[in-house]
Design goal:
78 residues
């Protein structure tokens, strides 16, 4: 995922409180491995019928630095 795509996804997440809260709740779970976080997020997002671009974005969260950046940005917006 390039920087422009990351910015687009962050804007969608910041504007949608339900999706933002799902991401924050799961990313805050220290007991989850990165794989568990992604699986829980995928399940939650599919239940909420999230846009495909958001579900596709989950692959980027396997990178810890990207996940931390996303968490920080969403926490600021909350």
């Amino acid at each position: 995922m390039n920087e422009d795509e990351l910015v687009d996804v962050l804007l969608v997440l910041k504007e949608n409180a339900d999706l933002r809260d799902i991401f924050l709740k799961v990313l805050e779970q220290a007991s989850f491995s990165q794989q568990q976080r992604i699986a829980v997020l995928r399940n939650s997002l599919e239940q909420k019928k999230a846009p495909q671009e958001i579900i596709g974005f989950l692959k980027s969260l396997s990178d810890v630095h990207t996940a931390n950046f996303v968490y920080t940005e969403l926490k600021k917006a909350a």
